[in-house]
Amino acid sequence: MLQELGCDFSKWIGVRCVKGCAPDMGWGPVLGVMTKFSWACLFAIFLELLAVAQSPLPTGAIQGSVRDSTGAVIVGARVTATQQDSGAVRMAESDETGQLRFGSLAIGKYSLRLEQQGFTTVLVKPFLVSVGQTVVQNIVMKPAEVVTSLDVQEQPEALETSATTSSVALGYDRIEETPAQNRNYLNFVLVAPAVVPSSGSNSQRSAAGVRNATNDSGFSFGGLRGRNNSLSIDGVDNRDETPGGNRVAVGLEMVQEFRVSGTAVGAEFGGAAGGLVNMVTRSGTNTWHGDWTFFTQNELFNARNPEALSPARPRFRRYQPGTSINGPIRKDRTFFSTAFEQEWESSQEWSETPEDLLDSINAALLQPKYSGSATRSVERGLFPAGSAQSEFSFKANHQVGTAHSLSARYAF
Known about the structure:
Layout: E1 2-8, E2 12-19, H1 28-34, H2 39-51, E3 59-68, E4 78-83, E5 89-93, E6 99-106, E7 108-115, E8 122-129, E9 134-141, E10 148-150, E11 167-171, H3 173-176, E12 195-197, E13 201-202, E14 211-212, E15 219-221, E16 230-233, E17 236-237, E18 255-261, E19 276-281, E20 289-297, E21 316-330, E22 334-351, H4 355-365, E23 381-399, E24 404-411
Parallel strand pairs: 3-9, 8-10, 16-19
Antiparallel strand pairs: 1-2, 2-24, 3-6, 4-5, 4-7, 7-8, 11-18, 12-15, 13-14, 16-17, 18-19, 20-21, 21-22, 22-23, 23-24
C-alpha cells in the first residue's frame, strides 16, 4: 500500500511514505509529516491522495513460490529481501499456498535469503528490480545442513510473464553510456517501440524539455497527440496541465530509471490516453559517489539546417557544466542525492517573415498600444537568440523500519 503527500507551487515539492506488508505499524509516519505542512497545503495534499490510485508507482515487486524437492509447498518459510545499495531489509513468510510477495519495493538490486527449520538456507544472488516490474522467483529448498547459493539472471527476461502492460525500462548504463543530443532524459523515450517525435518537435534544443511549436511532450505513442501522454516523477504527475509538456526538468545524473509504457495499459493507470513515462530519481546509497560533467555543442559539428536559407551554418553554441553527489547521512538508514546543472546557449534563429509585410508589421509594433510588447521589431533571415537556465534537484530517503520508508524531493 502506498500513500503520497505533495504540494505544487512554482517549484516542485514531493513527499512520499511507503508502507510495506506489516499490518501493525499504522500510519504514524504519515501523520508526523502532515503536521509539518501548513493548512494552505492540506487541500492540495487531499487532492493528491484522491489521485494516487491512478498514479504509476515508482516501485517494483518480487513474487514467487517456495517448494521442496518433491514439489510440495513450504508454508512459513522466512524470506528476507535486502537491497544491495542501501542495506534496506524487508521480511515476509510464505503463505499456506507457498507463495511469497514483496510489494512497493524501491528499485535496485536485491538479494534473497530463505530459511526454514529442517531445510537448507537458500541464498539468491543479487538481481535487478526495475520500476513497475514484478520479478518472479520460484525457489526450491532441499533438506540438508549446508547453505545453498542460487544464481539468477541480473537482467530481466525479454518477456515479463507477470506484466500486464507492454513496456520497456531504461536506466543505469543504458542512458549513462549512450550518446545523446543533450542532457534531456526524455530523448531516450524515442528508443521505445511505437514512439516517434511529435510534429514540429526539436529534441536538440532544450535540457528542460523538447522544444516544440505545439508545446507538448515532444513524442507520440501510436500516432496519438503528444499532449495526451502521462509524465510522472517518483509517482507524482509532472505534466503541464494545459499542453501536457514536461513541467520540471531533472538532469541525467538524477535519473535512476524510467519505464515507458504504450497506450494499452492497465486500468490502474489513468489520466492519459497516450503513453506513460514513469521516472524514478536516484537515491543515495551507502557508498559515496559523485560526478562532474561538461556538455558542449558547436555549430561546426552540426549539419546545415535545410530550413534556413543561409550559405553558412547558423550559430549554435551551448555550454552546460554540472555536478552531482550522493551518499549516506546515516549508514543503512538515511541517504541523500543532489545534482546541479547550468546552461548557457547562444544561437541564431531563422525568420520566414515575408519581405512585403516587414514594414507594415514594424510600423504596427511602434504604435503606443503595443508599447508593452516584448518584441519591438521583426526581420527576415537569421537573428540572434540566447537562453540561460539552471536546474537543481535534491532527494532524501529515510528507512523508518523493515516495513516503512520515507522520501522527499525538491527541484527547481
